Amino acid sequence: MTAQAPATEFDRPATAFDRKVNPARPLRVSSIITSLTSGGAEILVTNLNAAFAARGARGTIVVFCDAPTLGNSAEMEAELAAQIAESGCAFESLRLGARRRLVPGVVALRRHLAAFRPDVVHVHSVRAVAMLAFSGFSGPIVFTYHNSRLSFPPGLFAAIDRAVHHYVAISNDTASMYRRLSKRPFTLIQNAPSSRYKARGPRLASRKPCNVLSVGAISAQKNYSLLIETARALRDHATDAVPPPILRVAGGGDGLEDLRAQVRALGLEQVVEFLGERRDVPDLLARSDLYLNTSHYEGFSVAILEAMAMGLPVVATDVAGNRGLVRPDQNGLLCQPERPQALATAILRLSQDNSLYRQFSEGALATSREYTIENAAARHLELYTSLLRSRVPRKD
């Protein structure tokens, strides 16, 4: 049986991967995700594969379903597909139905594997692990779970372990989960923003009124009802001389219209706006002053990292996935969950104190420099080549 990673794996610093893949026989990697959309995991996989290509590897991003099949934006899918092609990678849809049945998925996956012949397959969903287990693929299989809270029974790790060689932990929280539930090794490779997100320097002060942005799909996890309650608290604090900050949310999904209706019912149309799924997030961040995260839990938020790379101080709930990334007295403020008054007070504090605002903007930029997509890609390639050399058996 393969031994677990040592305790030092938690804090092992990222190391540069200097050796480019042999151009005579480039490393081939298939990355499997559910669909191509603007979620954090999907954006990360897109950015990682572009960085793989820059280092001489050949990557293909494989999705189960076309985006509209799951109610996601066809326009966003087309834009991301164009970015993938431009980076030198490939994009392939297995064109499964919304239920992503096992047998059709295995058949379609076998066709992909026979045509592309990857050296390594990196899966980003539990369903992909199940399909891959029946695909006949004999190379290394890597699995990344992108959240700090499980969406499946913990006991399922016993079955996942029989198909997966190695896990990637995106945070200390997910590393703890692997330690507790899995018998396979893992490597800590924290998420990183695209190099497209980069500020020229720290911001000096918030505009009046302060523009606050949140980015993320409409889901129970993101807890946008708390954001709306925060907006109501901000309105109640406002005066004629000091208008309330404006809260905007970029993200689509089921429930969007219900949230807009809730905003109208509370008379908050001038304070909070749900923008739907957007393709101009860098521009939205550039025009914003603060970033707000109201989630019940996170993995290691790519959206927060992107905001920090643009110099935005962050206000966030003090939950798994936000702790450690949002550092009080350095780059942002953490507030207890379900406390809209606390979130509103934090937003007002940062927007009204120019000295603190600049300090936290500088801190946000400093934090973002700790997490680069180039380094994350190098760590992944280092892992893949190590697995290929070691020939770890897939089953106990």
Name its key features.
7-stranded parallel β-sheet, disordered N terminus, globular, 396 residues, Rossmann fold, 15% strand, 2 domains, alpha/beta, 6-stranded parallel β-sheet
Under CATH at level 1, the class of the largest domain stands as: Alpha Beta
Q: Count the E strands.
A: 13
Name the CATH architecture of the largest domain: 3-Layer(aba) Sandwich
Question: Within the largest sheet, what's the order of strands?
Answer: 3-2-1-4-5-6-7
Helical percentage: 25-40%
Poorly predicted runs are 1-23
Largest sheet, strands/sense/barrel: 7 strands, parallel
N- and C-termini, Cα separation: 6 Å
Number of helices: 13
Count of separate structural domains: 2
Kindly report the CATH topology of the largest domain. Answer: Rossmann fold
How do you describe this structure in short?
This protein has 396 residues and is of the alpha/beta class. The protein has 13 helices and 13 strands.
Q: What would you note in describing this structure?
A:
With 396 residues, the chain is of the alpha/beta class. It folds into two domains: 7-192 and 372-390, Rossmann fold; 211-368, 3-Layer(aba) Sandwich (Rossmann fold), CATH 3.40.50. It has helices at 40-54, 74-86, 102-116, 126-133, 157-163, 172-181, 224-237, 256-265, 281-286, 302-309, 340-352, 354-368, 373-390; strands at 28-33, 58-63, 90-93, 120-123, 141-144, 166-169, 186-188, 211-215, 246-250, 272-276, 290-293, 314-317, 332-335. The strands form two sheets. The protein has a seven-stranded parallel beta sheet, with helices on both faces. Strands 10-9-8-11-12-13 form a six-stranded parallel beta sheet, with helices on both faces. The longest helix is centred in the last third of the chain and has 18 residues, at 373-390. The termini are close together. The model is unreliable at 1-23 (pLDDT under 50).
